[in-house]
Write a structure and sequence with these properties.
With 285 residues, this protein is of the alpha+beta class. The protein contains 3 helices and 12 strands, in the order αββββββββββββαα. Keywords: Membrane, Signal, Transmembrane, Transmembrane helix.
């Protein structure tokens, strides 16, 4: 008869282990690296951490700094600038109508495979030039000495570039209405938006850091498990009392289990100290 294998842990204990492992992976993933993406930036200045996430939703802007139309459009004289931040452009209306759009969607889908495009009138014809792509983008501070001023999103194409300064304004989103050109093909524009403000500022050394995020993640996962389990047992199994809480016996006994795990260790340490003291015998001369 084969020897019995190790006894598996109770299901609630196994669940806690799985929740902890999942939370660890989430917490460590969130704690690693400063940038995190083409529209995310974290910088430390003066003992504080400033974090920006331009594409994260806000109460007033569910797509963050992204244009809900799929693109921003700025016209100056005979030139038209289209761009989108944190994503490629999408045109459901008013698409670019210009020549030489092969590297950004082609003539039938002009503008849909890049993040910034400009049209200039050359010899009576509107000619397109790709000036930025999502894969070639960089995020930096507008003012290195004042992180709260906002950030600059710079995108590149093989020969051109575009710099979009997102100035922090917590009350209003003011879309750009002009742009400037420097050098051969380097464009720049500016607008105000709440997403340009630092989303979290924490003093260095304060708070729990990644451990606090890990703890909150564990609580969220555990709370979701209890809530979903209780709803299922209440509506589908017809349990209409406190017994609807899944693994109720385990949660009730959990404090005693913890106490049982901790108390023996304390007793063993006390006994060890006593034995050590008992080994010394006074000798009278």
């Amino acid at each position: 008869m084969p020897a019995p294998g190790p006894r598996p842990p109770p299901r609630p204990v196994l669940l806690l282990i799985l929740l902890f492992a999942a939370a660890c992976s989430c917490g460590l993933a969130g704690a690693g690296g400063g940038g995190g993406g083409s529209c995310e930036l974290s910088v430390a200045r003066g003992g504080a951490l400033y974090s920006f996430a331009l594409a994260a939703p806000t109460p007033a802007h569910r797509h963050g700094v992204l244009s809900e139309d799929g693109f921003y459009k700025v016209a100056v004289n005979d030139s038209i600038l289209w761009f989108q931040l944190c994503d490629e452009m999408l045109f459901n209306f008013d698409p670019p109508m210009c020549l030489n759009c092969e590297d950004c969607g082609g003539p039938l889908r002009c503008g849909t495979q890049c993040s910034a495009l400009v049209s200039n009138n050359v010899g009576g014809y509107d000619v397109c030039t790709t000036i930025g792509s999502l894969s070639e983008s960089h995020l930096s501070l507008i003012d290195e000495s004042n992180p709260q001023k906002g950030v600059v999103v710079k995108m590149f194409s093989p020969k051109c570039s575009i710099s979009v300064s997102v100035i922090c304004d917590s009350t209003v989103a003011q879309v750009p209405d002009k742009f400037v050109v420097s050098g051969r093909c380097d464009y720049a524009t500016t607008f105000k938006h709440p997403s340009g403000c630092a989303r979290s500022i924490s003093a260095s050394g304060s708070g729990w850091g990644w451990f606090g995020t890990l703890f909150k993640t564990i609580l969220s996962l555990l709370g979701g498990y209890i809530l979903i389990g209780a709803v299922y047992r209440y509506y589908f199994l017809g349990i209409h009392s406190v017994e609807a809480i899944p693994n109720l016996d385990f949660w009730i006994s959990l404090p005693q289990r913890i106490k049982t795990m901790l108390v023996p260790a304390t007793r063993n340490r006390v006994n060890y100290n006593r034995d050590g003291l008992g080994a010394y015998v006074s000798v009278s001369h």
